Structure prediction request, 330 residues.
Amino acid sequence: MTTVESAQNFDELLGTSVAASPYEYGTLFQTDGFMGRQRCKNRLRLLKRIDFKLRHILEGGEKVHFVTTGTTISAREKFPFGLLAYHLNRRALVFTSRRILLLHIHATDRPRELVSQLPYASIASVKPSRNSGCAVKLLNRETLNFQHIPGADRKYLVEFLADIVQLTNAPFEQKRGVEQLCPHCFVFVPEHPASCPSCTGKFKSARKAGLLSAIFPGLGGFYLGYRWFAFLEFLGAGGLWYFLIIDPLLGKSVDQSTARVDPEFWMTSAAIIVLAHVVDGMLAYHFGRKGHYPSGEAPLPASLPPFVDRPKPDANALNKLKINRTAPPV
Prediction:
């Protein structure tokens, strides 16, 4: 029996000798359009890397119809960090029969700690956006921007989500939006508690991350697990301290005949240092509140959960996802 792990090519998963799985291979691997086969190869590679974790997140009977990559980057992250913010916000977007799962992934598509979900019932409307993605308007009046989606997947996603949401003028009354899941047991945990009320797994503190980065930039990022990004922050902050504080002090101590440094220089240097620390502390706090970071290891079980349904072609699979809402009262 062929599985996602054993398949060398996506064609093997479209045959008859396929092991039971939660994946709708017919919609996952559509080869139509330009470079269709290459897209399917990329999708299989992504699926192989998130498969083990994804199967532990899925609920009983939940099917996966489509997967791709993208980001949910915000303007305040994009402005100071650019491409670095893209890597910090990279997600595997998994469209199931019940919800959209957002799995935090590395640049190599390996899963990281954060997991969140967006129930289809929370979506009010979907439309393409100017920044290589799609804008999903939620019933709580928020807008979620999926960006940096591969070009060939972008159009499909807009059509896929728009087809699910049958009535886009539904009343704005639901408060549910993007929901953060526990990285230990993958249940929805509202707000930002210190531990999961379901499995008691501990979470890292966004406040502590912000305080650490305010003390010295990079400490908060290292605490949250962004080690390469923290290293760059260390370098940047170290450079500021050296050129604005350490080097002038060393120069003064070596050459006693040098004229005293202008006090305005020290005031300006201190203001720049304080601003850098405060801004980095705010950003660390912001990233710390993007989800529930596990405090300590959050190991997955050694074996995959059982799945008894055989993958059968279902021409009406997508029709079953449609949400037919009643029209709002006039």
In short: Residues 96 and 216 are 42 Å apart (CA to CA). Confidence is low (pLDDT under 50) at residues 253-259.
